[in-house]
Design a protein that fits this description.
mainly beta; six-stranded mixed β-sheet; five-stranded antiparallel β-sheet; 3 helices; 8% helix
Length: 224
């Protein structure tokens, strides 16, 4: 029987414990950036974020339970001209930041959470003009022992409300001895003869209507 190997990447992602939305901002400013290629400035929290999205994660036909299901959202400065050049190399590396997303089980293999696209404050962090933060992706991470089945929802799909379904093989689910990340396939037929022995994770985002959101907590290290 012809088999297609699982699409995996041997990288350990940075994940944080599940916390309430109020505590998410506090964790944000005590965790390092997921891309630590440059020194990040004193990143500030937007105290009145309004771009709220409900994240929905649906799991279908999984061959067994998951040890835990976690979420993260990654941010990156979108205009690199506000960032100074690195000494010696002369490269410009945009700051990045990761925050946890609480995913709550709502029944029928569905999990929901909330992210703010404008969680971080646009500001002149380096004296070279306003740095604008943008969402890179919101991701669901479904863990079976040492294996992370990762389902990202990237910027355009998140903001436009486009659902994304990824497929993972039952064979990959059974192989948990080695630490790895399985990013799956968006086309089930890529598994060829094993296409029917797969499960799926669908992640989507819906814009919430929000009149006003005021952050009353002052996270550690955030200036007023």
């Amino acid at each position: 029987m012809k088999r297609k190997p699982e699409r995996t990447t041997y990288v350990r992602l940075i994940n944080s414990p599940a916390v309430s939305l109020g505590l998410m901002s506090a964790l944000l400013f005590t965790c390092p950036a997921y891309g630590a290629a440059t020194d990040n400035p004193d990143i500030k929290l937007n105290r009145q974020p309004r771009m709220s999205y409900e994240i929905t994660v649906k799991v279908d036909n999984a061959p067994g339970p998951f040890d835990r299901i976690e979420g993260v959202v990654d941010y990156r400065v979108s205009n690199e001209d506000c960032v100074p050049l690195k000494p010696v190399t002369g490269a410009t590396v945009a700051p990045e930041k990761r925050a946890p997303v609480v995913l709550t089980h709502t029944g029928s293999n569905v999990y929901k959470g909330e992210v703010f696209a404008d969680l971080l404050q646009d500001e002149d962090y380096y004296g070279k003009g306003i740095c604008h933060w943008s969402v890179v992706a919101a991701s669901a991470n479904l863990w079976v022992k040492q294996v992370d089945f990762s389902a990202p929802l990237f910027h355009d799909d998140l903001l436009k409300g486009n659902p994304v379904t990824r497929y993972y093989s039952h064979r990959s689910y059974a192989k948990t001895q080695v630490e790895r990340v399985d990013t799956g396939e968006t086309d089930r037929s890529q598994y060829q003869d094993e296409a029917n022995a797969t499960f799926s994770v669908t992640i989507s985002a819906t814009r919430n209507k929000i009149e006003e959101y005021v952050m009353t907590m002052k996270p550690k290290g955030v200036n007023p």
